[in-house]
Amino acid sequence: MRLGTVIGRVTLTLKEPVYSAGSLLIVQPFTRDQFAAAARAMPKGTPKVPLAPGSSLVVFDELGATIGSIIGFTEGAEASQPFEGDAPVDAYCACLVDRVDYQPPR
Predict the structure, then answer these.
(1) Most buried one in 63, 83, 84, 89, CB count within 10 A?
(2) How far apart are CA 25 and CA 93, in angstroms?
(3) Among 7, 23, 91, which Cα is nearest to 62's?
């Protein structure tokens, strides 16, 4: 599982029935520096974690994450495990993160 910040939503006009129970989110995965930033920002309220440069990915969500949420997501074959049949899903939102405790390695 990796952590990431929700930076957007995907709107679908037509969709596979498997997508009817949730939504698609655009997520920026965390870097090591972002773990430390999240740990500092989260106890005071809404997290404000600067985004890392790099690629983002689309994550299927049934938990109700919103833009700015920090989520835990799985990828690959594990992402399709919550579905009963075949599901064209590359990444799945497995949790909404309330708090990150992180101590950088020395």
Answers:
(1) 89
(2) 9
(3) 23
